[in-house]
Amino acid sequence: MPSSSFTTLALASALTYLYTYSSQASLSITNAVLLTCSIFLLLYLIWSLFLRPVYFSPLRNLPGPARKSWKHFFKIYNPNEVLEFVDTVPNNGIIRYLDILNSEMISITDPKLVAEMLGPRADHLNKRPKIKVIMESILGNGLVVAEGKDHKYQRKHLLPAFNHKVIKNLYPTFWSKATEMTSLMTEQIQSSSPKDLSMVVDFDDWAGRVSLDIIGLAGFGSAFHALSSPETDLNTAYRAAFLPNKNSRMFFILSLLTHPTLVYMLPIEHSKRLREGVNAVTRWIRGFIAKRQHDKPEKTEGSTFVHQDIISAAMEGGAFGVENLVDQSKTLLGAGHETSATAVTWGIYLLSQPRYAHIQNRLRQEVREYLPSPSSGIEVTEDMLEKLPYLDAVSKEILRVYAPVPLLGRIVHSPMEIGGVTFPKGTVLLVHMWAINKSKKLWGEDAHEFNPDRWLKDKVNGGATENGFLSFGAGTRSCIGRGFAIAENKALLAQLIGSFDIKPPHGETEDLDISWGITARIVGGLHMKTSVLEGW
């Protein structure tokens, strides 16, 4: 906004002149500059915080929720609260909010407009600068963080590593790791409660550990041993680098209010722990890449290399240098593992609720009828797991109700039009996946309910309008690992529900404290009474 700043400065200078002229005051150059700067700051604040958003913004006439108090600011970042706005504020797919400093936020609520925003109009958008710095400090400039031509190049050359053939070959890995997890959980329960074979288990912890082991094998062809030995140096470093804790929320807020790089380098415990974790994980990745490059057999004419892990497949293509391979590896570890673990945790939360006990029982019946017991040692393949329609429906419904990534934010870097509205440079656009996935306008009156049957009636869209299911994004930025995530989720849910009866320890789950970051995590874990079930 250089023109408005220049105008404000000119006005401040004029007011300074009028003051000195009318009062016949004699000001030194220093005092005149200070007075001009003070007037400039005051005028700029009045313009930015009040006049422009209320009276002069070209977007001021867009519909939006009533702003009743300062608490409204926190609601616009909470997808559960935004869901109320989406359902109650009359709109044509675009809602305008004002945050605590009256900065404009635009929520795109129509899936067709979201598809347009993230598809044909994607080149007009970037990540918000501070959010990008936060993500890049942890994930590197990999597929999730990269933008523009860089992103297109990376996605093109990573797609072969996520094709159907690769994912199909990973089903036995998903199942074997699920088997190891349920076996260790059963042993823990049997040793702690040999009489009733029941104890309270933190499913968030187990989901994180099994997902890390799976990403180790599927992504790197390496055994991380997070299930059997969670305190290894690599696993400890990983948790420090990628898993949120009680201080993560304050770290995030400070980063937005100041500058992420400054907060990242502060000599405080959380920043120190984060830096050490990221550095340790990066060292391991560099060692892994160097070893793979050293061990790679000489390629002869007409030959191909066949590796089962994703990073090796990316290396074989020859499209990435070492530094970008490091970034892709950090992205795979951070984004790939975190979203998978979060999806499992939310799945167990839903299935454990007393009002959905019939869904848990129905799913268990299907799993036990069509899949071999983990103790049988029989390898479960894609063909076997994909023949369970109710498991497929439950998995999709979990991802609908609690999308692992609840919110997507972009900033307009060149003027663009969506839905007949022109957004000027600097406009912040938000896509609340949680809200759209549960909008009654799109999903019907039972949109807020966990109802897997909707996917049995309509396997593709679940009864919603086209593009109403946004858990994996849309357009050119849609999740490249969608097939991987769904297959892993099915394998883990099948084993957990097939092996255990799961319910809240006190009958009903208390209100959850949710950490809103890149993913939506349950603060303090998910502790559920878990009973071993015989007969499978």
Automatic annotation (TrEMBL):
Database matches in Pfam families: p450
One MF annotation (Gene Ontology) recorded for this entry: oxidoreductase activity, acting on paired donors, with incorporation or reduction of molecular oxygen
Binding site for heme: C479
Name of this protein: Cytochrome P450
Highest taxon of source: Eukaryota
Residue ranges of the TM segments: 32-51
PANTHER family in alphabetical order: CYTOCHROME P450, CYTOCHROME P450 12A4, MITOCHONDRIAL-RELATED
Record keyword Iron present: yes
Cofactors, names only: heme
Keywords attached to this entry: Heme, Iron, Membrane, Metal-binding, Monooxygenase, Oxidoreductase, Transmembrane, Transmembrane helix
Family under the similarity heading: Belongs to the cytochrome P450 family.
PROSITE patterns assigned: CYTOCHROME_P450
Listed InterPro entries: Cyt_P450 (IPR001128), Cyt_P450_CS (IPR017972), Cyt_P450_E_grp-IV (IPR002403), Cyt_P450_sf (IPR036396), Cytochrome_P450_monoxygenase (IPR050121)
Species in which this protein is naturally found: Mollisia scopiformis (Conifer needle endophyte fungus)
